[in-house]
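seq as requested:
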Amino acid sequence: MSDGEAGVATGAAEMAVPSPAPTSPPAYDVSLADHGLEAKEFRGLTYPLGDHAPGYGEYFAIASGLGWTRLPVPGSLDHINIWLLDDHDAHGEGLAIVDTGLYMPATTDAWKRLFAGGLAGRRITRVLVTHFHPDHVGAAGWLCRKLGVRLWMNRTEWLMARMLTSDVRAEPPAEALAEMRHAGWDEARIEAMRLRGWGNFARMVSDVPIGHVRLDDGADISIGARIWTVMTGGGHTPEHVCLLDKPGKVIIAGDQILPRITSNVSMMASEPTANPLGEWLASIAKFRAALTGEELVLPAHGFPFIGVHARLDTLAAGHLERLDALEAALKSQEMRAVDTFSLLFSRAVDDSVYGIATGEARAHLRYLECAGRATCTERDGVGWYSA
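struct tokens:
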């Protein structure tokens, strides 16, 4: 969200409107070069498929044993990418699903079109979810029950989803309102938050299965002919899962590595003294050291790309530049979290993204505080930061 290349919570399709996608997978030995699509270069990244993407509920085969579809997401994000992996189990050949979309009629309709079209006659073996956010886990429970398969997920991410779907209240807890007051929200905005109630997460997510198969950092998972190594990152969520096929040089990156926007890194009510931006920057360093730079990155939003080192460097540099600018500003005047928006974001912060912007501003201030580069003084419940 704090990337200079994009404004707050942006994420609409970055390139041209996608052309129609094939409705059935091509031959087994298909490669990226066989698609006949024109690659594109943009800001140091290569997009091997150019501006091509499947429509909602359509199947497109990227490479051997690896398929792609998209599902709708309201607002500027526009879509989420779903990855479909050739698989086999005790019952024979099938497909594994990675990420599931929001639980809403437009999503379930797209899944039904997919099962009746490009995936007709193909059995689903399991559902894997990268992290607990609703656009990723939302339809997982519905799919698992519909298809009779297990959910594969990191334990912490599964627990977060279970906790948030069960915590529905008429009003937000007092400590959540106090955090927004601490960030500088005025009383009218706090009252509007109170009237919205608590538990909106559960409205976008189907019942999460009570059991799961764990995806632990460093584990190797056999899916079809590929072996995927689980890599977890922090900051965006506690233990976001990426899947790396080292020999095949492919990484399913979820929201951990996006090509044109940055993932939101916010303070969470569940961890009010954490340092999520510190975790995020450490994760960037972890992935940069582990990846060769030649991998095809399959992100949750945007287009598949090559150039992961350049992208990770840009992500890190963007945050570090904003931290320096924020520290410099705090040396001349005290600021609340809401006073930092113009320093951190390249677009105006309106009501639609005010909460997300607040969370990210608090994460940047908390990073400076943990690094000894800023201090916070509370007056009348409001946090004032200085450096």
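Confidence is low (pLDDT under 50) at residues 1-31.
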